[in-house]
Design goal:
By secondary structure, this protein is an alpha+beta fold. The protein contains 20 helices and 16 strands. The chain starts with 17 loop residues before the first helix and ends in a 23-residue tail after the last strand.
Length: 557
């Protein structure tokens, strides 16, 4: 997309307007919601009027370039949740995907709006020397948030034992499913590194452009008083740097004006945690927020009814899923898990709860896999009669099966969960649906229940989806939730073979296992993501859940 020129703040942001105040007040009353983040327009006018003259004198004395920086708009984004850590190797949830990308860069960038093509990022060139070694030329002169110029030492450190690859590193466990093939990173010279893998890795280039491959400042990391301090203000190379962070409240990022890829279009980005959807919508309507995330399908028309607001979004590179634990005495029988999968009418869920705005999946795969997409594979459909047959074969005796859900983590999660529970009960299952307050009682070791989940396609390859989520070393594996030895052997072929046909054959068999033979979970549909925004903001999300407000991806009309 085009890189926008810096523009002045929107009308009403730095000027007093009684009419604007009345309209905003009226809209808040119509929305019927107040929360701590809705700033009083009248208080804002009072603060502005007191300092307006001084500010005007100050700006008149500023150089032209500095005035352009000052004139750039501020952006306020209301999100459902802020992560409690800004260190990407520690968080693989939507809350991190929405705020962290503006802080960091990758060696190799992915163009999510153009068929997932890879392009130079912090690296200008990369080449494979042999089946286990890749040499990477770094972009010279990249200035980091702390004012230092990025070197090969920073890159090697980012993937090294102190941060991710050492067994005592904070992110050693979470990073294994993403980076486990990277054995070491060698510094060749100031602007060159070599990645050495423990075994041949057919998707190394994709790994270096995927989550957890962000580059950080070695010096800033080592000088942080604690890892906790580092998590709250990491130093990298992205278009914005951390200005302030209050957990469960707000995160403010300031423009990094020495950014290597152009001037960031916003002076600041303020992310505000607003858990209630109604409050996010009310704030958008009132003008307190410029963009809001996570709008349910049944609220889209409401947002679109305001002429100065727009809804953007659609399918993402995530799917919604239901996960089964083999630790439960009933769920340990694979016939029961397959029966649960076949009892779900996915199309009915998409039509009734998503208004047909999201698509279905063909089993555990994404259409972005290219030659590895197994078009002839048949994912599970709706077959309640076969579900009842399987229940009879397994001698299901009506024992209750716990189903733990959150009230509103995923869009329309509770209505979806209630619909699925009703479908299961319609074929004869006894479902004990338990609404939980947080993930604490769901993401536990040795779970013995059903729970909701989502699968992110970290890279456009099965290694970044099915294998990462359910394979050896995955969080599912570490929680002893499900494990299949044949699946793991095939996954190692998928992860290490440089033979495209061998990889395709392995993945095809893996799909058959997880969809029909030893079901660890079942895919529901593509995960939709819808955002509300002011009509004047020239921003469109990509299929990735990563919100990017850098120079090449955002603008203001």
């Amino acid at each position: 997309m085009r890189r926008p020129e810096p523009t002045k703040p929107r009308s009403g942001e730095n000027t007093s307007s009684g009419r604007t105040a009345m309209v905003r007040t009226q809209r808040r009353q119509e929305a019927g919601v107040n929360d701590k983040h809705l700033t009083s327009h009248f208080e804002l006018l009072g603060r502005i009027s007191g300092g307006f003259a001084a500010a005007a004198l100050f700006l008149s004395a500023m150089p032209v370039q500095a005035q352009q920086v000052a004139d750039r708009p501020r952006l306020t984004v209301a999100v459902q949740e802020l992560p409690d850590s800004l260190e990407p190797v520690m968080k693989t949830r939507t809350s991190a995907f929405q705020v962290v990308p503006s802080i960091f860069d990758f060696l190799i960038e992915t163009d999510y709006s153009d068929n997932f093509d890879r392009k130079p990022g912090l690296a200008t060139n990369w080449k494979r020397i042999d089946e286990r070694t890749m040499e990477v030329d770094l972009r010279p002169g990249v200035v980091m948030h702390d004012g230092r110029v990025m070197t090969a030492e920073d890159v090697a450190f980012s993937f090294g034992p102190q941060r991710v690859s050492g067994e005592d590193a904070p992110a050693y466990g979470p990073s294994r499913a993403y980076l486990k093939t990277i054995e070491r990173v060698e510094v060749v010279d100031e602007d060159t590194v070599r990645f050495v893998t423990s075994k041949p890795d057919p998707v190394l280039e994709a790994r270096l452009s995927g989550w957890m491959s962000q580059v950080v400042s070695k010096k800033a990391f080592q000088e942080a008083e604690s890892f906790s301090d580092w998590e709250r203000a990491p130093v990298s190379t992205g278009p914005y740097k951390v200005q302030s962070f209050k957990t469960k409240d707000e995160l403010v990022l300031a423009a990094h004006d020495d950014y290597w890829d152009g001037t960031p279009p916003y002076s600041t980005i303020r992310y505000v945690e607003v858990p209630e959807q109604s409050s996010r919508i009310a704030g958008l309507v009132a003008g307190d927020y410029d963009i809001i995330t996570d709008i349910d399908p049944d609220q889209l028309e409401l947002v679109e009814s305001y002429g100065d607001l727009e809804v953007v979004g659609g399918d993402t590179i995530m799917t919604r899923s239901i996960r089964f634990s083999t630790n439960h005495p009933v769920l340990k029988d694979p016939r029961i898990r397959l029966a649960l999968s076949l009892a779900i009418d996915r199309q009915a869920i998409v039509d009734s709860l998503w208004d047909g705005r999201v698509g279905l999946t063909n089993g555990f795969q994404f259409p972005y896999y290219g030659e590895l997409y197994i078009e002839e594979h048949k994912g599970p459909g709706y077959d309640p009669d076969r579900a009842r047959e399987l229940m009879a074969e397994a001698d299901y005796d009506g024992s209750p099966i716990p189903y733990r859900v959150l009230e509103h983590w995923y869009p329309v999660e509770l209505p979806t969960s209630e619909a699925i529970a009703a479908m299961w009960e319609a074929v004869g299952f006894n479902i004990d649906m338990q609404v939980q307050a947080s993930w604490d009682t769901i993401l536990v070791e040795n779970p013995a229940f059903i729970h909701n989940g989502a699968t992110l396609m970290n890279i456009p390859d099965p290694v970044g989806g099915l294998w990462r989520v359910y394979g050896e070393g995955s969080s599912i594996d570490r929680r002893n939730q499900w494990r299949n030895e044949e699946f793991n052997k095939l996954g190692n072929v998928l992860e290490t073979s440089l033979d495209p046909q061998a990889r395709r054959d392995a993945f095809k068999r893996m799909l058959q296992i997880v969809d029909w033979e030893d079901v660890p979970a079942t895919e529901l549909h593509m995960r939709g993501a819808f955002y509300g925004k002011r009509a004047g903001i020239d921003w469109q999300p990509t299929p990735a859940p990563y919100l990017d407000f850098g120079p090449t991806d955002t603008g203001v009309n």
